[in-house]
Amino acid sequence: MVTSTPVTAPAAPVRAPVAGRAPARASGWQRHRWTILRVLSPLALLGLWQLGSFLGLIPERILPAPTLIADAGLELVGNGQLADALLVSGTRVVQGLLIGGAIGIALGALVGLSRFAEATVDPPLQMLRALPHLGLIPLFILWFGIGETPKILLVALGVAFPLYLNTFSGIRQIDRKYFETARVLGFTWWQRFRTIILPSTAPQVLVGLRQSLAIAWLSLIVAEQINSDAGIGFIINNARDFLRVDTIIFGLVVYALMGIATDGIVRLLEARALRYRTDARA
Fold it and tell me: What is the pLDDT of residue 30?
């Protein structure tokens, strides 16, 4: 007698669970949560500030409410004073940045490429760098008067040293094998500069530029207190005379926003100029 073995149907393949929309949203939150928190934290601080002013916990004569500061800013925008002040202050920063930047990069390249220049030029520069440049305001007033010259030179002095140090450091960190290879290949000085020095030092020079811009706006805040007749500092001085704390704080906020804006511009320039490094990592 033949017994038949029952045939068992093959088990259905186990499929991996398909990710639904909910996990996708969770991963999106995890990916962007720090950005969201960075945006929400200052908004929460402004809300607490406004609430404290509304409840009378923060005296208006010491720290006006954010709405009052915003109203003061709208007043300056409406009468055109803010636009004129931004033009004047921005021109001073640009002039100081060009003068100080050119001097800092030139001296950094000279000292970085020459041992003789390092032994003779670097020590006096380090002594000058040790001096607080904002403490030189009385001398600048005696030497150059109270016009535009001391303001621009004060910004230039603050700008020069970060670019000098970063340019010098960037050149000294270049692998000497590159220069030996260039010498064997018979590169001219311009070819060495274009293919070796410039690409190798660009990252640190751009970092120095970001540092210099921050110092430039800091220097300008102090420089525009020197008998200014135009600019953001002039608005702040007038507001001080009329006890307008809201306008003073708005002027400081404008300084901060201009510093952030210029830093963002340099970061975009850095990302575009150094995109080859990102491509290489990819």
Answer: 64
